[in-house]
Amino acid sequence: MTTHAVRIESVSKIFNPGRPNEVQALVDIDLDISPGEFVTLIGPSGCGKSTLLRLIASLIDPTGGTIHVNGKSAEQARLDQDYGMAFQRAGLFDWRTVARNIELPLELMGWKKSERERRSKEMLELVKLGEFGDHHPAELSGGMQQRIAIARSLSFSPSLLLMDEPFGALDEMTREHMQDEVLRLWSETGTTVVFVTHSIPEAVYLSTRVVVMSPRPGRIATTIDVDLGGRNDDTRAETPFFEKVTEVRAALRAVEAA
Amino acid sequence: MNVPDRLRPYVAPLVAGVIILAGWEGTLAVTDPDGFVLPPPSDILGALVENRTQIWSASRNTGFVIVSGMIVGVLFGIVAALLVSRFRTANEVITPLAVAVNAIPIIAMAPIFNAWFGLLSPRSNQAIVVILVFFPIFINTAKGLTLVEPAQIELMESYAASKWRIMREVRIPNSLPFFFTAMKLSSSLAVIAAIVAEYFGGRQDALGPLITSSAGLTRYDDAWAAVLAGTLIGTVLYFVSVLLERFAMPWHSSMRNDPFAATR
Ligand SMILES: Nc1ncnc2c1ncn2[C@@H]1O[C@H](COP(=O)(O)OP(=O)(O)O)[C@@H](O)[C@H]1O
Ligand SMILES: [Mg+2]
């Protein structure tokens, strides 16, 4: 039996059950993700993408169903620090230097100081911000901060990377640059990625599989496999890319019309 | 004007201050040469120099009440804020209580405090400073401890960090700007509280009694000199707060060379 990186079985989530502000956020979610996959969740806003990601992270608990990460309960995976997370807002700590922001998860995991410093140097090189280790986050641009947040989420080589619209606040050029950066990190580290976005081209460009979700209540409408091979500067201008973009767009139209 | 950046924040207020003092001096020389209503700055300065031994020892006594009261009030405020932000029950108990106590006009209770602690004991005045300083420190620090970006808390939880670790790594650093704003507010509050409380009792060799007795003898320049001494204590406390702030959070953008930044 192969262990799934993520296994979601008949999961549902109701916020504030039994109260007037009850929200049925997700129903009947089944999703298996294999190690090394790059899965994006896409759908109209409010369809439960962030909720699904936070369920996988065990930051909230499902109302029904089960979630396993690396063959353990989601909570155990969180306690074992199996995954790294990055959000739309970089969420860096102003009071720590850039290097010490990257070292934060390592400190919590009890790494030795010398090991931490060696690793944060490596990670800074990886996101091409080698000379900014001693700066404070406030001195960096939004795109640079986001790169630091990604470096932080990767610093302890998690087997699973959870990203919630990490490039949502960036301009188009920075965004495309960051997409290539994440693809490079993904192929270099072999980590599994679950990535939330509401941008169709972003979903198609990045993923091996696009999961299209529908709202009220949130459920999985379709999944679309993507195989663009090695991406380069031309990928976004080529037919296979356009065909997939069209396919995902049609699926989203169907979802919104329903 | 070409002023070096480092000195910039000081030059404008200094120039303005000198102009105001000169205007005060000049106007009085014409309208009130005997200084019945308002003594000119030169007389106040003269009284300060003339009575320096008395004002110095009064300032030390009042300064002790202010500083000791502030230290205790600040410590209580910090501890209460930590408890309230960490334990829900503490929040449900302490916060309404603090709000209720804050609604009491504490300074107006100075005579009652004197009855409790003894008319000539400085304890009652210290207690008033403690209570008055406590509230802004408590409320602001608690706000800083709780008003944290939810994503930062989720991030820490995703690393399976304990509640105390989250307190140390996220909540406490996040609360520092709030805390120091409250410190700056408290420093003037503590001076007012101590001097007004001294009008009603406590040590007699102190700024409050010096102001009342000088005014009673129509020696207004002496009274003003004592007020000036109180002002200096407040100013020193303000700048000590600024120094502590710079030391505690060198990363903060308001730290870039403007001592008045946080109050602007
Ligand atoms: N903590 C919460 N409490 C109550 N309702 C929530 C909470 N988080 C999300 N929701 C609701 O669940 C639904 C899905 O939200 P979310 O997962 O954030 O959507 P998306 O990320 O796809 O935009 C929305 O209707 C939202 O209002
Ligand atoms: Mg969302």
Number of domains of chain B: 1
Oligomeric state as shown: heterodimer
What is the number of helices of chain A?
Answer: 8
The fourth-level CATH homologous superfamily of the largest domain in chain A is P-loop containing nucleotide triphosphate hydrolases
- Determine the CATH topology of chain B: MetI-like fold
CATH superfamily of chain B: MetI-like
Distance between the termini of chain B: 22 Å
Strand content of chain B: under 5%
Tally of separate helices of chain B: 10
Q: What fraction, in percent, of the residue positions of chain B are helical? A: over 70%
Summarize the largest interface: chains and residue counts.
A-B, 23 and 20 residues
Average pLDDT of chain A, to the nearest integer? 89
Characterize the overall form of chain A.
globular
Bound molecules: adenosine-5'-diphosphate, magnesium ion
Q: If classified by CATH, what would the architecture of chain B be?
A: Orthogonal Bundle
In the CATH hierarchy, the architecture of the largest domain in chain A is 3-Layer(aba) Sandwich
What is the general shape of chain B? flat
Radius of gyration of chain A in whole Å, from Cα? 18 Å
- Give, in spatial order, the strands making up the sheet with the most strands of chain A: 6-7-8-3-9-10
Main sheet summary of chain A: 6 strands, mixed
Counting helices, strands and paired strands, the structural category of chain B is: mainly alpha
Structure overview:
- The complex is a heterodimer of chains A (258) and B (264).
- Helices cover 37% and strands 24% of the residues of chain A.
- Chain A has eight helices and ten strands.
- With 258 residues, chain A is α/β, with parallel strands linked by helices.
- Chain A folds into two domains: 6-82 and 160-257, P-loop containing nucleotide triphosphate hydrolases (Rossmann fold); 93-157, no CATH class.
- Chain A is globular, with a radius of gyration of 18 Å.
- A six-stranded mixed β-sheet of chain A has the order 6-7-8-3-9-10, with helices on both faces. Chain A has a four-stranded antiparallel β-sheet with strand order 2-1-4-5.
- The mean pLDDT of chain A is 89.
- The N and C termini of chain A lie far apart (38 Å).
- Chain B has 264 residues and is mainly α.
- Chain B has one domain: MetI-like (MetI-like fold).
- In chain B, 76% of the residues lie in helices and 0% in strands.
- In chain B, α3 runs parallel beside α6 and α8 (163-198) packs antiparallel against α10 (220-248).
- The longest helix of chain B has 36 residues, at 163-198.
- The model of chain B has no long low-confidence stretch (mean pLDDT 87).
- Chains A and B meet through β6 and α3 of A and α7 and α8 of B.
- Magnesium ion is lined by residues 49-50 of chain A.
